[in-house]
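Researcher: Re-running this chain for the archive, since the previous output was lost when a drive failed. Same request as before.
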Amino acid sequence: MKKNKNIILSVLLALTTAMPVEAQIDAADSAQVQVAFRKVAKEDIMGGVSSLNYRDLMDKNYNTYSLDNMQGYVAGFNGASMWGFTESSVTDPVLVLIDGVPRDANNVLPSEIEEVTFLKGAQAVVLYGSRAAKGVIMITTKRGRVNNGLKVEVRANTGWHVAKAYPEYLSSAEYMTLYNEARVNDGLSPLYSPEQIYNFSSRQNLYRYPDVDFYSSDYVTKAYNRTDASVEIEGGNDRAKFYSNVSYYRFGDFVDFGEAKNNYTDRFNARGNVDVRINEYIGAYINANATFYNARSAVSKQTEQQNGQTVTLDYWDMAARWRPNRVAPLIPISYIDPNAVQPKNAIASSANIIDGKYFLAGGSTSSDWTNIFADYYAAGKNTWVSRQFQFDAGLNIDLRSVLKGLSFHALMAVDYQTSYNLSYNNDYMTLEPRAEPWWLFRQPDHHLQCPLRLQPYVCRRTQCERHDCGQWLSDHEVRTVSPYQQRQPRRHGIIQLRS
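Model: Regenerated structure tokens:
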């Protein structure tokens, strides 16, 4: 399991335009807390309500998600629900309201939040019904507070997500030894011979006897960068106030090879609002938000069945499943036997030569024709794109002239969201490496007829005149023409290496 540590460098720059002496931040509501449909004084809040001033929190802390670390500030909240509920936060989440409208907490960034209120008591169900059975989280976004002036604030953060430690991956020899031990404990005979274990432990030929470590520096990096920046502008006068926030962030990934080296997630967000006081009794406001979200990742063709559904496995899933002795991901072209003309020609025509000197390797069984390494090098890329637009407007009327404490509030909200995946999926060829005994080079004509036969067992090529040549190839090898031309969509062949 990866353990991440964030190292954040934060720079805060505040620019304020020249304004009259009387210009000031309107702090009339500083002692008020948003509760359901109105604001009340902090001292009047009962125990079932917790409130957090997020603007002050962001001045001395750094969060990347609107509800980051809230369990450290709010009693009873465990990060997903309140009152100690442990059910899934996906199928039955806490009700989240952003400026009074039910929306996802991810729709608002920490730099845009003024206040977060948690309704934990029975009043949550009374006010919002069964949908609030796990409580209510009310997020209030920032609004303009400046009278007769303009305030501009720029904030930039950059840092690195650092893996404190990666798991230690078993070597091939250790895995084979322990696997044999497990079979013996189950009353079965060992699968790997002492000679095989020795060949893998010697590490003299890691292409013929692979020893793959998913957590080595060849495939993963110890840190990746995250950078974000935001610009906040607010201003106004006695009649109207406005607030706007424009922000962007981008971060990478720990996987550091192939297409996965270019994995990233980024988001551009623009939020704004205007509050207008029409007269002493009537006020109106408009809120708007636009979010552009992109996430790019390498394509994986590794799948498995989970609860009757086909699930795609990523690099970290395969790291928990892959045996280190299965396949060497890449093999140098220089290792190909110089007499193997057809395989060399096939590789020469391949579009998947890595760094100009490696070809993609596979195994003899169908489960090894593709692997996560070959996928990330050659299977393509996927980009998830999301666009969200949110708009709401409200009208507030004070009816104290009719009845003291009476008011009217109207709200209209419109949300538009579209998302799609743009994917480039490629088929590719993998080759299975095997060593050729030296004495078989005495039969050059036979090699031309069976260019994929590499070890002396029984040949299954239908066009071969020497059916006693000895190579047992798997069923997918039975072809009357070159398998390099016929195997689709998962192309796999066997190539002879120098012994």
